[in-house]
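Subject: complex prediction, re-run

Hi both,

The earlier run crashed halfway through, so I resubmitted it with identical inputs.
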Amino acid sequence: MWEIGLPLPFAASLPEHPTETELAEACRRGQVRAFEHLYRVHSARMKSLAFHLLGSRADAEDTVQEAFLKVCRAARGFEGNSSLSTWIYRILINCCYDTIRKKQRLAENAAPAEFRAESNVTLKVALERALSALNERQRMVFLLFEVEGLRHSEIAAILEVPEGTSRSWLFEAKCQLKRMLTGAPK
Amino acid sequence: MKFECGDLERALANSDLFPEAREHLKTCAVCRREYRLWNDISSVARELHEEWDTPALWPTIRQAIEAERKPERIWWKQRKTWAAAALAIAIVVPVGLWRHSVATAPAARTQSSTPDFLTERALREVEKSEAAYRQSIARLSQLAAPKLSEPSSPEVANEKERLALLDSAIAETRASVASNRFNIRLQTALADLYRQKQETLRDLLSHDAKN
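This time it finished cleanly. Structure:
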């Protein structure tokens, strides 16, 4: 039962280390403590991913907030067909795309540039710049796998593609980045 | 097969380079640089993970969640308002009919009736229902006592907290009713709280029976 009307501090207790089932059930019941638990576990990674997709910390924070609100609204209907984390990241990514569409940032950020890793530019900076020139799917898989450390099985579930596709997109992304960083032709 | 520089990218598709590729790297500085860069991309990518403190973010999200739930609470209150209105109509219509019959009845019948009689009677009915609720709740509480004193499962803890909340709301509403016994809205709210407590106790017991 959704705890509408109950003051938030009265929401039922949640074990310190809830299982996936307990957490999903608590989310379905609308327990704020369950959402707080999800926030504690996932927010750092969510902020970082949103930051790389949106290019600003403020936008990343706003989008993570929006994603959590969507999670709360939709939690009652969460059927458990995927893991909670997979579901949350999927919502976050959709929120990021919404933000990108709203602000038309994609076009601005995708401006072609010289990505050669010159001596005065560290590889990290060059890589950050090169990332923005990758196509959407390559960038997403690269960020999720290489930057945020998710497994291909998790990425495949989030993006709803086969695991082999996730691997293949990552390979394409790295080839593309390597070419950009060495100035090699495509 | 002779390995050439153009084959390097294809070779990188495997996590372990095959022997021909490794041999080629020993002799080709360009491919060696590319291969190092390939590995550096992965190691440097880990440094791109961005972390910063946002102490205000969760409180903001929590506030937003609360703000979103408020309209639902208003809706819940409105439902109660409708229930109170329905109850009021149920009382007002018979009163109207009674007044009409009084107006058309013989004088002797009019003299024997008092103006507050029906309201008093309605109140007595309400108080009788309240007593019945209280009795039923007392019985259910007795049955649920062993379950409530056990070490809590998350469901029981949830029900316990809900019962505590309902008890405090009942106490508060009863205090208001004591100073305003004829207030239909307060009486309806109190009855609703009793009903909720009864249902919560029943849920608890039925959950117990299922387990």
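Residues 39 and 68 of chain A are 8 Å apart (CA to CA).

- K.
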